[in-house]
Design a protein that fits this description.
Length: 201
């Protein structure tokens, strides 16, 4: 059985506008602060309302995955990238692309302080059942992009997220999942440096 740290339902998330007012961010969960005071890692959903520049994020690596039905084009300094729905796109926070959309959409964001952790996102379509494994030295999150089902005994629907570490479980249902794995780069064998910050939901 998976060792659940926190389950965050879509209805429990709180949204805040971007500084440029061109979108909204709905935070799911964040890791404990680093020495600089920034979160060691962070999961959130962005509502993309119009074309906008992404803010440059120093020493941060991020994975951007469109979870709406409409993709987006990311214009980097040296290339353009089509971010199709449910296809993760990883890039350095310093690269801060210009995001072009043809209609409002949403994106699931994973951000990690690269001196502390690495992150990967796997897109998985589940028809009836999928086995989920979580290494003991990482934090794993399952975000339901669409559909619904049960992960162990917990019912999850579109927009819900379960964060856990260690053990194995099974997702039963019909859904498209984004599976996040965050691993410490600090050399420790435990997940202590990747703990969850105490924030209200």
């Amino acid at each position: 059985m998976l060792e659940t740290i926190r389950t965050v339902a879509r209805r429990d998330r709180h949204s805040a506008p971007w500084p440029n007012r061109r979108g909204m961010t709905s935070e799911i969960v964040r890791g404990t602060p680093t020495q600089s005071g920034t979160p060691s890692w962070r999961l959130s959903v962005a509502s993309l309302r119009e074309d906008a520049d992404f803010s440059p994020l120093r020493d941060v690596d991020r994975v951007f995955t469109v979870v709406g039905t409409i993709g987006a084009t990311l214009h980097f300094a040296d290339h353009d990238h089509w971010a199709a729905p449910l296809v993760p796109c990883a890039f350095a926070g310093e690269d801060s692309p210009f995001c072009e959309i043809t209609a409002p959409t949403e994106a699931f964001n994973v951000m990690v302080e690269r001196t502390v952790a690495t992150a990967s996102v796997t897109s998985l379509r589940v028809i009836t059942r999928a086995d989920i494994h979580s290494p003991v030295d990482s934090i794993t999150a399952v975000f339901v992009a669409d559909g619904s089902g049960r992960l162990d005994r917990t019912r999850l629907t579109s927009g819900d997220c379960m964060i856990y570490h260690g053990g194995s479980g099974a997702f039963r249902g019909s859904a498209h999942l984004l599976i996040v794995e965050i691993v410490s780069t600090a050399g420790q064998s435990s997940i202590e440096p990747l703990g969850i910050a105490t924030v209200p939901h």
